[in-house]
């Protein structure tokens, strides 16, 4: 199964200046719980935005056109479809960003794990692709209010691709 996991603002915002637009510890915990023990696929700029490099307890795959690049604890591919083909026998692969990789992976994906942050962010410069109701079914939705640690209300959503 190929799953995409992303946190998005109300206008599908995902980032600005190669960084996140918010900090939601509950979303980070969900991300860690879902992806630990699995392969995570990301673009080079997403990898570079990780504060400590490769994510622990996961197989880190980076998609890059730079064939001379070497990244610690990562497997590099120059093509998303080649990476997906290589790991196709795994129970679940997670695509974790960024914008270009999300856009390319929508055709391959079976499931979307979305955290919808209930706010818009005018400074965003990266966006998640549209989730079309003709292609995806919302199967789970769990709303949360803001609190002392999570400054914005958010909704954990799960979508399954229509057959």
Essential attributes:
163 residues; alpha/beta; eight-stranded mixed sheet; two-stranded antiparallel ribbon; 4 helices; 10 strands; globular
User: What kind of oligomer do you see?
Assistant: single chain
Strand order of the largest sheet: 5-4-3-6-1-7-10-9
DSSP strand count: 10
Helix segment tally: 4
Global shape:
globular
Share of helical residues: 10-25%
SSE order, as H and E? EEHEHEEHEHEEEE
* Class from secondary-structure proportions: alpha/beta
Low-confidence stretches: none
Sheet with the most strands? 8 strands, mixed
Radius of gyration: 15 Å
Look at the structure and give the mean pLDDT: 96
Proportion in β-strands:
25-35%
Query: N-to-C terminal Cα separation, in Å?
Result: 14 Å
Compact overview of the structure:
The chain is an alpha/beta fold and 163 residues long. It has helices at 25-35, 44-49, 80-86, 99-105; strands at residues 2-8, 13-15, 39-43, 59-63, 74-77, 93-97, 111-117, 126-127, 136-144, 154-161.
Give the helix/strand layout:
Blueprint lengths: L1 E7 L4 E3 L9 H11 L3 E5 H6 L9 E5 L10 E4 L2 H7 L6 E5 L1 H7 L5 E7 L8 E2 L8 E9 L9 E8 L2
Parallel strand pairs: 1-6, 1-7, 3-4, 3-6, 4-5
Antiparallel strand pairs: 2-8, 7-10, 9-10
Question: Can you offer a commentary on this structure?
Answer:
By secondary structure, this protein is α/β, with parallel strands linked by helices. It has four helices and ten strands. The chain has helices at residues 25-35, 44-49, 80-86, 99-105, and strands at residues 2-8, 13-15, 39-43, 59-63, 74-77, 93-97, 111-117, 126-127, 136-144, 154-161. The strands form two sheets. An eight-stranded mixed beta sheet has the order 5-4-3-6-1-7-10-9, sandwiched between helices. The longest helix has 11 residues, at 25-35. The two termini are 14 Å apart. The model has no long low-confidence stretch (mean pLDDT 96).
């Amino acid at each position: 199964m190929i799953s995409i996991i992303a946190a998005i603002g109300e206008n599908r915002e995902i980032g600005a200046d190669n960084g996140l637009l918010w900090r939601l510890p509950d979303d980070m915990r969900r991300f860690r719980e879902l992806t630990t023990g699995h392969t995570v696929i990301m673009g080079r700029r997403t990898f570079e935005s990780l504060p400590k490099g490769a994510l622990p307890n996961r197989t880190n795959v980076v998609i890059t056109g730079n064939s001379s690049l070497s990244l610690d604890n990562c497997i590099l591919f120059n093509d998303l479809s080649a990476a997906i083909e290589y790991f196709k026998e795994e129970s679940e692969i997670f695509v974790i960003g960024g914008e270009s990789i999300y856009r390319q992976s929508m055709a391959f994906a079976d499931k979307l794990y979305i955290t919808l942050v209930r706010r818009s962010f005018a400074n965003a410069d990266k966006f998640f692709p549209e989730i079309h109701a003709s292609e995806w079914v919302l199967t789970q939705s769990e709303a949360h209010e803001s609190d002392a640690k999570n400054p914005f209300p958010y909704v954990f959503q799960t979508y399954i691709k229509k057959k």
